[in-house]
């Protein structure tokens, strides 16, 4: 076990070494005082005698951090087996793994590790592995029996993300298959899998990973644990055929809940008032505020900073920190750092901080009761983000973020009677999202009858049919609705949206795979252009008390405009896809130049500076480079990541990687051939009509074609905020559509 003892600490009391031991002791005491600690033995007995266990315990009772450690100590990792714990969100997987590594006194990536898309902190010694549910699903594609795991814990199952729901169905069948001799052949060719996801060949128990070796083998049974604080255990109990349910009683610290007397007309205003009431009137402790999205977070941040300026110097000690999914992860992790001495931390978060995470210092939670949720219309094929009230389960999770280190308070900015009206749990995501990726994944796992698949709750039939139609039109399915060869198999192998996967396959025929690889990598990361916080802080506002939230929103929009201006030097009249290629290539040139002398630090520093000057999200560009090709990531000292390197994947598939040079016509024709279902024609009023659905849409203001408005275009995504917006659009010729997609346009005619 690598020691956490700070080598070289000299002092005997009061110095770093003493601090280290004091912290270690504090953690050990804290662990012992958790409600789950008193039932450790009973829980281990239950796991030994039942293959499926449903554990329900209050937030903060110790499920996520302690149970894997108990299992490890109880011998569930013998023979090199791994305990896998899935989380619906990346930030939870990372932060919990860090805490558990600290509790165990080991270095991250050794006994305890995490694995999320683009970031793999595991090694051959990892035995407790936190990961996202989506990541485990991809592992199942490569190792159908998940043979390296002895126990899989599905945490926060109540969230019912689409990946959790699919995973539950898969785990159920994996468990059944592992309970007897293996007679069934896996459906995909494991011998081609790369980068260590597939079974370590040296290890006996894991050797079953490759195709032929499965047959006739008896793998050890897989233990399955479904866990949540707010789980309606009945549904899971029925789904798993009367599995054992265990309730862990008690919470560590009480949380007082406060409601408003009447509904708030302006919840952002109410939020602001509550933040300052806490700051000025309540005792020490940090504040966590739940908001619906980045723009709202930036507005509130701005308002808080302005209002602070009105306070006397000694009352200004408030540190505001945002956290949302598109924030670079180094910045996300800042919320976990202690506030500067004498300061109070106010964290403005979306629901990514709602479950699993413990943010040290949080004593107060402000919950306006709203969340931005995904909805999907199978009829129009449109996914939207809509602000809706939270469920009771979400409200409980939010209040559960307080009371983890001491008693806490939660301020719900709505009346108690409104809480009673909330639905108990959130509608499972599988009922409100586009299913084409899920269907492709299930087909690759050998599930031919999607509607008949053992889902805990069936997705809408209409949505499944729509996805099957889309996959058939993309050529991924045969007439019998099986995965086609080679296209369907190739598409399933790429960890991408099906249309993006098809675009890559087509690009090899259009001699522009080089450009399409860049495009797909850039489309796979969070937004490339962004508005830095420092710029927002430059907005001059004289007196906050005369200021309305709308003014702040206007300021945010102003800087979005600035970002757009900065983006102009990369912009191409051909559209956003070529613009993204230009950004990538410019960053590549810069990187190659800075790399001379192999000075990694300098290269990274130059890159960050360049990104900042150009309103570019440096993390996104780095991730895109990482997805695109491994060479860059090795240079940056990052480990090769699973199968995310799509370039390597397409090369292994034998696709021809060539560049179309300056001939972007070929590239746009290829886009038209892949995105034909996302083609739209300009209408006399300047809006667009989507040809496949008849939907009326507008180009998103962030697009380089926002003002040019070509007659015909294809788009990457359709989102509804205050309008139906199409994002990442490129100009095409409408005559190309029947020529390049005759399977759709001739039929339609
Ligand atoms: N990063 C951390 N820093 C300080 N304390 C922590 C940290 N992570 C966990 N803890 C402590 O461990 C306790 C148990 O956390 P854990 O995440 O295991 O609970 P849980 O039952 O899984 O809760 P939830 O259902 O909310 O995820 C917390 O209440 C807190 O006291």
Kindly state the mean pLDDT as a whole number? 83
Largest beta sheet: strand ordering = 4-3-5-2-6-7-1-8
What ligands are attached or bound here?
A: adenosine-5'-triphosphate
Count the beta strands: 21
Count, helices: 28
Helical/strand content category: alpha/beta
- Parts with pLDDT < 50 across at least 5 consecutive residues: 1-12, 184-213, 533-549, 630-643
Question: Quick one: overall form?
Answer: globular
N-to-C terminal Cα separation, in Å?
68 Å
Q: Oligomer, anyone? A: single chain
Features:
single chain, 749 residues, alpha/beta, 8-stranded mixed sheet, 6-stranded parallel sheet, binds adenosine-5'-triphosphate
Commentary on this structure:
The structure is a single chain. The protein has 749 residues and is α/β, with parallel strands linked by helices. The protein is 40% helix and 16% strand. The protein has 28 helices and 21 strands. Helix 3 crosses helix 4 (90-104), helix 5 crosses helix 6 and helix 17 (498-509) packs across helix 26. The chain binds adenosine-5'-triphosphate (ATP). Adenosine-5'-triphosphate binds at residues 30, 34, 57, 59-66, 99, 229, 252, 355-356, 358, 360, 400, 404-405.
Describe the structure in brief.
This protein is an alpha/beta fold and 749 residues long. The chain contains 28 helices and 21 strands.
Helix-strand layout with pairing:
Blueprint: H1 16-33, H2 40-49, E1 52-57, H3 63-73, E2 82-87, H4 90-104, E3 112-116, E4 119-121, E5 128-132, H5 133-142, E6 149-154, H6 162-178, H7 211-214, E7 223-228, H8 233-239, E8 244-248, E9 255-259, H9 267-281, E10 286-290, H10 294-309, E11 318-323, H11 329-333, E12 344-349, E13 362-367, E14 370-377, E15 382-389, H12 392-399, E16 408-412, H13 416-421, H14 436-444, H15 461-473, H16 487-493, H17 498-509, H18 513-523, H19 533-537, H20 549-567, H21 576-595, H22 600-613, H23 618-628, H24 630-635, H25 646-652, H26 664-674, E17 679-682, E18 688-690, E19 696-699, E20 712-720, E21 724-731, H27 736-740, H28 742-748
Helix pairs in contact: 3-4, 5-6, 9-10, 10-20, 14-15, 14-16, 16-17, 17-18, 17-26, 18-21, 18-23, 21-22
The structure holds adenosine-5'-triphosphate.
Residues 30, 34, 57, 59-66, 99, 229, 252, 355-356, 358, 360, 400, 404-405 line the site of adenosine-5'-triphosphate.
């Amino acid at each position: 076990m690598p020691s956490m003892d700070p080598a070289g600490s000299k002092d005997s009391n009061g110095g770093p070494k003493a601090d280290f031991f004091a912290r270690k002791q504090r953690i050990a005491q804290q662990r012992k005082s958790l409600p789950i600690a008193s039932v450790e033995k009973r829980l281990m007995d239950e796991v030994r005698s039942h293959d499926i266990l449903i554990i329900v315990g209050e937030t903060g009772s110790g499920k996520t951090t302690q149970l894997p450690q108990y299992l490890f100590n109880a011998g569930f990792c013998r023979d090199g087996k791994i305990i896998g714990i899935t989380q619906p969100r990346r930030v939870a997987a990372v932060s919990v793994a860090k805490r558990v590594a600290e509790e165990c006194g080991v270095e991250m990536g050794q006994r305890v590790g995490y694995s999320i898309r683009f970031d793999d902190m595991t090694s051959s010694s990892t035995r407790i592995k936190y990961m996202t549910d989506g990541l485990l699903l991809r592992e199942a594609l490569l190792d159908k029996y998940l043979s390296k795991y002895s126990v899989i814990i599905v945490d926060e199952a109540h969230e019912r993300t689409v990946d959790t729901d699919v995973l539950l169905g898969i785990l159920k069948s994996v468990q059944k298959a592992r309970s007897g001799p293996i007679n069934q052949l896996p459906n995909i060719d494991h011998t081609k899998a790369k980068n260590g996801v597939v079974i370590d060949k040296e290890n006996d128990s894991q050797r079953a990973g490759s195709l032929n070796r499965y047959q006739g083998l008896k793998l050890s049974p897989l233990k399955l644990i479904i866990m949540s604080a707010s789980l309606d255990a009945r549904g899971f109990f029925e789904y798993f055929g009367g599995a054992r349910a265990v309730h862990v009683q008690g919470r560590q610290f009480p949380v007082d809940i406060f409601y408003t007397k009447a509904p708030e007309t302006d919840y952002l205003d109410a939020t602001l008032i509550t933040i300052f009431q806490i700051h000025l009137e309540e005792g020490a402790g940090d504040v966590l505020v739940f908001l619906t999205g980045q723009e709202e977070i930036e507005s509130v941040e701005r308002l808080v900073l302005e209002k602070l300026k009105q306070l006397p110097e000694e009352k200004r000690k408030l540190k505001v920190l945002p956290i949302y999914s598109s924030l670079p992860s180094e910045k996300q992790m800042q919320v976990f750092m202690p506030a500067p001495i004498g300061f109070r931390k106010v964290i403005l978060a979306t629901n990514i901080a709602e479950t699993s995470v413990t943010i040290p210092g949080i004593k107060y939670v402000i919950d306006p009761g709203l969340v931005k949720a995904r909805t999907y219309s199978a009829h129009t094929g449109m996914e939207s983000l809509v602000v809706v009230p939270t469920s009771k389960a979400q409200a409980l999770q939010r209040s559960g973020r307080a009371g983890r280190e001491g008693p806490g308070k939660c301020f719900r900015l709505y009346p108690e009677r409104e809480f009673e009206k909330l639905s108990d749990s959130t509608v499972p995501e599988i009922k409100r999202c586009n299913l084409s990726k899920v269907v492709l994944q299930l087909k690759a796992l050998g599930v031919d009858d999607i509607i008949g698949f053992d889902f805990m709750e069936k997705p809408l039939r209409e949505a499944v049919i729509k996805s099957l139609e889309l996959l058939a039109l993309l050529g991924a399915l045969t007439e019998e609705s099986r995965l086609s060869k080679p296209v369907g198999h190739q598409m399933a192998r790429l960890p991408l949206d099906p249309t993006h996967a098809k675009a890559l396959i087509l690009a090899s025929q259009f001699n522009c795979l080089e450009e399409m690889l860049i495009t797909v990598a850039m489309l796979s990361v969070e937004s490339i252009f962004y508005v830095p916080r420092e710029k927002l802080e430059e907005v001059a506002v004289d007196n906050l008390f005369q200021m309305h939230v709308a003014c702040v929103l206007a300021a945010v929009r102003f800087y979005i405009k600035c970002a757009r201006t900065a983006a102009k030097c990369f912009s191409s009249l051909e559209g956003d896809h070529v613009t993204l290629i230009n950004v990538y290539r410019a960053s590549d040139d810069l990187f190659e130049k800075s790399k001379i002398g192999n000075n990694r630090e300098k290269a990274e520093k130059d890159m960050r500076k360049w990104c900042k000057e150009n309103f570019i999200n440096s993390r996104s560009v780095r991730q895109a480079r990482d997805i695109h090709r491994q060479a860059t990531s090795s240079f940056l000292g990052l480990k090769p990541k699973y199968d995310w390197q799509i370039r390597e994947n397409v090369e292994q598939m034998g696709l021809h990687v060539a560049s179309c040079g300056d001939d972007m016509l070929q590239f746009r024709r290829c886009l038209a051939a892949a995105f034909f279902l996302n083609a739209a024609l300009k209408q006399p009023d300047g809006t667009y009509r989507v040809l496949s659905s008849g939907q009326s849409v507008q180009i998103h203001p962030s697009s380089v074609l926002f003002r040019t408005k070509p007659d015909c275009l294809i788009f990457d995504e359709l989102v509804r905020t205050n309008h139906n917006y199409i994002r990442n659009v490129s100009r095409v010729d409408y005559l190309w559509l029947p020529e390049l997609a005759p399977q759709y346009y001739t039929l339609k005619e």
